[in-house]
# Entry
Amino acid sequence: MSKSKLPREILNNIFWLGDCLEQRYQGKIYHSYNSSYLVVGEKSALLVETGHPKDFNELHEQIKGILSKKKIPLKYIFITHQETPHSGGVGRFLNIYPEVEVHGDINDYHMAFPKYAANFKAMEVGDRIDLGGMEFIAAEPVVRDMRTSLWGYISPQMLLFPADGFAYSHYHWDGHCGMIAEEADSLDLFDVSAVFAELALFWTNFVDMEIYTKRMEQLVDELGIKCIAPTHGLPILDVGKTMPKVMEGLQAPYHKLAS
Amino acid sequence: MEMILENNIIELSSNKAFSIQNIVKLDGRLSAYPPNQGGYVPLNCYLLKEENGAFLLDTGYLYHQKNVLDQLKSLLGPDIPLSIIPLRINEFMSVGNVKAISQNFNVIGYYSPHPEGADWFDFTDEERDLSLKDIPTTIVRGMVNCEVGEGSGRHIDIMSAPIRLINTSWIYDKSTKILYSSDMFNYGIAETNSEEWIINSIDNEISSSFIKSFLLNTRYWWLEGAKTRLLRENIKKVFNSYDIETIAPGYGKIFQGKDLVMKQFNFLDEILLELDKSNSIAQYVPRNHVR
# Structure
């Protein structure tokens, strides 16, 4: 068990992995996650995101612990985009699992990990990976951190992996590490989403995010998303209750700058 | 596909500033360029050098590791104290070779927006090289002024980029009048791999419409209908505060000459005004929407 209280099985055979990253803001220490998720199908397992470079050993121990019990091989990695907190661990995974296929938008990786260029397989929205009893499907990235971002979801659980789309920190001092969003009663979701957007998603300061939050709501409806597994935020198991607060926070930097 | 076409070193200021270049052919696989963009560009790292110290801005992709190490060796003795500033700490192009350079040169410091720089640079071998953690990190937030080579009197300003997508620094070096602009002004693209990698004629073929399209098709898809006034003001402050004779971007050709520099600023300012919400309607921009 890591100090961040992970891994945690958030849905049947879907595990939340990783560790917290400490960030200081206005005299307080916030934690945010650089999460990965392990999806264990009947035939194969898929890892979503490869974590922050510093977390590799921790993450790998968590994965080994789960897969040794499940007796299912890690066959796929999906990475949402090319920033190192999301994809920085992929080279290390390929050192250990050279047969693993890495799916997603594949820009830059042939330059970043030339030894493994052949492992990277391009995905586009709608492309599918069969894990046995569940499928991973690439989805439209509504809120992007790079032009090349790509999201995905797991069917039939309808769990969305939105990368930086639902990004917010949590209060370490209130014991939120390892909690689902709905369990973190004292977490001001509007505030932490707004602060994260202002600091980490620079463009949201200048863009009226209503057009993006509307599209996000449409996407959730269109796909029938029931749960959300963000890279930086706590997992969301009650979309109806939690998503509106996060979307409101995403719009806040623009309105703050306008005022 | 073989991507290395040639590697260059350009001396931008006599024994003070060098562009360490590796030229690539654009084939739709570089996130810094539009997916449909062809041509050739240099990927630029920069070495700022004095007799008793140097700074390296960005370290290039792992793909070019041998080239970058060889290029650096040709410019820098192994004992000269070297500091590394990755201009975009989250991007492989900035941090890809920090570890190898730290293992081969006398690296005395990292500059990073995060307190433990070494945590962000090591992602290749099975085990981390924890000796990198012994190299101290200077935290870069807001404006940081530092000296290239102790006692040289040559100071550079590290600033938060006034327009950016992710955490990005720009750097101004007063002694050489060079602005290092990271992922802005990256649109100097060659049709062949035998062109000059510095533009110094004001009558070049780069147009405002091309730059606008380039911005919208790369990391600035969000600008159309955005509130650009503050962005324009902050960019203007940089160009008004500093005497800039060269724009040295992280990718693409280098712009040299005061008039040419001002032309690039004016292009950007006019484009941002055109894209401002007072002149353009914001719309949802899906992935791979090329304009």
About this structure: Chain A is about 30% helix and 25% strand. Residues 239-258 of chain A form the longest helix (20 residues).
